[in-house]
Amino acid sequence: MAGIYFHIPFCKQACHYCDFHFVTSLKYKSEMLQAMQQELRTQAAADFFKGENRLQSIYFGGGTPSILEPEEIAGLLQLCAELFDTKALQEVTLEANADDLSRDKIQGFRQAGINRLSIGVQSFFEDDLRWMNRAHGAGEAESAIQNAQEAGITNITADLIYGYPLLSDEKWDQNISILTRLGVPHISAYSMTVEPRTALGTLVRRGQEPPMDEDQSAKQFEYLMDRLAELGYAHYEISNWALPGNRAIHNANYWRGLPYLGIGPSAHSYDGNRRYWNASNNPKYIKSIQIGGVPAAEEEWLSTEDRLNEYIMTSLRTSWGLDLKWVKGRFERKFWGPLEEGLEAFEKQGLVQRKTQTTEAESGENQAEKFTLTRSGKLLADRIASDLFYT
Known about the structure:
single chain, alpha/beta, TIM Barrel, Arc Repressor Mutant, subunit A, 9-stranded mixed beta sheet, 3-stranded antiparallel beta sheet, 15 helices
């Protein structure tokens, strides 16, 4: 089943590390929402999902979707229900900043159809949040989670960031402890990266901030893996942990290579054969919709090499791993031969592990051969995938 992603390109202020597309003015919010609705109608009329119109998930990302009013979110969801089959819809996620999540607004989002919140906590320490230029304060993050739970939204994921200069090991431990004490069932954690076209990138380039410490990042990542494992969280993707029954449906479908439609400026889409992305420019996006077209976009038709390399990258990031038998059934030997050799080499180094299993749809005579990253391999996930790419 398919998924739809809405990119809401508005924020109150710019986080110093963020390189996603956004603006800090709501001046053209009405025109933007009208354009997004029109893009959705255009893609539905063009049969984007090729007849498979059953939606399993809808995701509002950004930007800061929680900056919108509940009725504005409701309008987009109602249009989805008119244009697509939503009877099997399971997960409707809204990314949110803690300072937006008053009790009344959360209740409004719930009534609009949101059943999962992704709360950008990042840290529970005031000095860290100021350093990141986050809009919320430390106390608001904890209150937002409690407000959501009291409003009946218990399917919550929260983001944390590690590996930056202000984050001592003691503070890192406290961040993890607060989230788990609050009973947050899904946690996403990311190492701080320095992107060139961000405020943090400029500060590091000028020597006003130190570069990020890779050793610190690796140490804090390992600590997080240990702590959450002790508490029953499954490490099912390199940056994601979940208690039983709380894995993210929408994002997991990305990693499984299922089609998804992206709506809004800079939004990406995948139809099974190609990837394309809308212009990262609000006026250009709105104008292209107003003159009756699909927003100006770039597209990429995936070659055989692209398909294999994307599968290597995404599958190795997950707990279900890379299925070599599946690869052998879909690619020529010239593609899977080097991959098999590379996997065996990493297996000898203790960076990947092999397991043979029977899937529900298979008999015992037709088994999957899965390769997953070991604990040591998870520290080198991107490098391992890159080395395994077919070139």
